[in-house]
Design a protein that fits this description.
Oligomer: single chain
Mean pLDDT: 87
Strand order of the largest sheet: 1-6-5-2-4-3
Shape: globular
Order of helices and strands: EHHEHHEEHEE
Strand content: 25-35%
């Protein structure tokens, strides 16, 4: 599958999330998908993703153990926006219940956003799943 993204469509993002969302930053997700392809092949037509500012992850001591257990190392990326702000992007391509995976992973990731993604014919379509501003986990429990 070719990962050239000609168009990005984002659906269902509430206004209160769109003001801080990283998903719509020009060129950000296309660059992440290009890295995915370089690291292990083309992304599937359907997958899920969670985006979280790296500063939030580091403030908690790193990725929480449960997030590490529920993600794959080759599908965890640290990626910068065009204005040099670092984010953690977690991708999920197992075909399991994507929304449940997003919600479970986000329980301990403050200021995170998640989407179901569909990619085809040069168009990446994102359907908003959830945003978490304050997380449930205890600070400092990550690694």
């Amino acid at each position: 599958m070719q990962t050239a993204i000609d168009s990005l469509e984002i659906h269902g993002v509430p206004d209160y999330v769109s003001c801080w969302s990283a998903a719509g930053i020009r060129g950000f997700l296309p660059a992440v998908l290009e890295r995915w392809q370089r690291n292990g092949g083309a992304p599937p037509a359907r997958f899920a993703l969670v985006i979280c500012p790296l500063v939030e992850v580091l403030a908690r001591g790193g990725l929480p153990d449960r997030v590490i257990e529920r993600t794959t190392p080759r599908l965890r990326f640290h990626h910068f926006t065009g204005c040099h702000k670092p984010f953690v992007v977690l991708l999920h391509d197992s075909g399991e219940d994507d929304e449940a995976w997003c919600r479970e992973v986000q329980q301990e990731l403050a200021w995170s956003e998640s989407y179901r993604a569909e990619f085809g014919a040069g168009v990446l379509r994102l359907q908003f799943v959830e945003a978490v501003e304050e997380c449930e986990g205890n600070p400092g429990t990550g690694r």
